[in-house]
Write a sequence for this structure.
């Protein structure tokens, strides 16, 4: 079972109270970008076994969006954090490093 | 003016807990900056309640206020006073970036009472309803089977559930099934 904590309202809830919003920290490429960059933005998603960053919405609760860093293999959650950021905050990175030394995910480590 | 009617007037079920439609309740969605003193003061004017903290509900008789999200409250007043309360909130909030909307007719309210009330809710929602985890003064928004619902306590072994009017029959049927005779689990006993 995946247990998430919403950083907006503070509720700790079970997965079905939330709705997954796909990969986090996607860099957008639109008009003016190369076909390859646009293709990758649309279709080339991370699918790791291990450390992963996702967007979630507290759909049956406060309604807010937030970010989650978790392990896809064990469902362990390293932390949840604000949606209003383009990269994981340092305390989240540190929490992951403590559990998964040497982790990498896209440009973050 | 047409006569206001609830979704399931008089709906009542008596099993291991009593399930009853609570009747007309004025409900106002109030969105804005909850840190703004003017909002707290307007809320107090309308309900007599202080601003509830995160995941809290403040009740004063038929009036009250529930914390719904970091920028949203559910304001409760007697049904007949809703329009006046919205007007007061609008006037008090003035040009601020805030919204007060009468949502009374979009909702349905159920009361769940009895020694097994916690268990009836626990069967339907992914929430820990043990007395240690959930008590008076708290509000929990979550899912009841397949629909969103909010719940708080109105007394000992007494809970109030608010959900969308469009799913009133579904939620009443869920609660009836969970409260059927012989359905005791004893988890919270
Ligand atoms: Zn939340």
């Amino acid at each position: 079972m995946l247990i998430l904590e919403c950083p907006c309202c503070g509720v700790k809830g079970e997965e079905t109270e939330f709705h997954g919003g796909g990969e986090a920290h996607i860099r957008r490429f639109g008009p003016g970008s190369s076909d390859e960059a646009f293709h990758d933005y649309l279709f080339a998603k991370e699918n790791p076994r291990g450390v992963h960053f996702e967007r979630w919405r507290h759909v049956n609760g406060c309604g807010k969006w937030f970010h989650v860093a978790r392990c896809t293999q064990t469902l362990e959650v390293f932390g949840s954090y604000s949606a209003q950021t383009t990269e994981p905050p340092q305390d989240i990175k540190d929490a992951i490093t403590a559990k998964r030394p040497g982790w990498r995910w896209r440009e973050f480590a | 003016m047409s006569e206001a009617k609830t979704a399931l007037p008089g709906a009542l079920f008596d099993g291991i807990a009593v399930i009853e439609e609570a009747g007309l309740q004025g409900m106002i969605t109030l969105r804005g900056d909850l840190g703004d003193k003017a909002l707290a003061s307007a809320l107090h004017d309308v309900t007599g309640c202080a601003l509830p903290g995160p995941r809290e509900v403040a009740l004063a008789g038929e009036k009250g206020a529930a914390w719904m999200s970091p920028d949203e409250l559910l304001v409760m007043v007697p049904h007949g006073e809703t329009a006046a309360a919205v007007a007061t909130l609008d006037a008090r909030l003035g040009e601020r970036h805030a919204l007060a909307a009468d949502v009374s007719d979009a909702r349905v309210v159920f009361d769940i009472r009895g020694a097994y009330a916690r268990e009836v809710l626990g069967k339907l929602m992914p929430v820990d309803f043990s007395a240690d985890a959930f008590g008076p003064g708290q509000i929990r928004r979550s899912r009841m089977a397949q629909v969103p619902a909010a719940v708080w306590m109105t007394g000992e072994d007494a809970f109030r559930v608010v959900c969308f009017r469009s799913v009133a029959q579904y939620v009443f049927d869920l609660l009836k099934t969970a409260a059927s005779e012989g359905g005791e689990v004893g988890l919270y006993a």
Q: What stands out?
A: The beta strands of chain A are 3-5, 12-14, 19-23, 51-57, 65-71, 77-82. Chain A has a mean pLDDT of 97. The domain at 48-109 of chain A is CATH 3.30.2270.10 (Folate-binding fold).
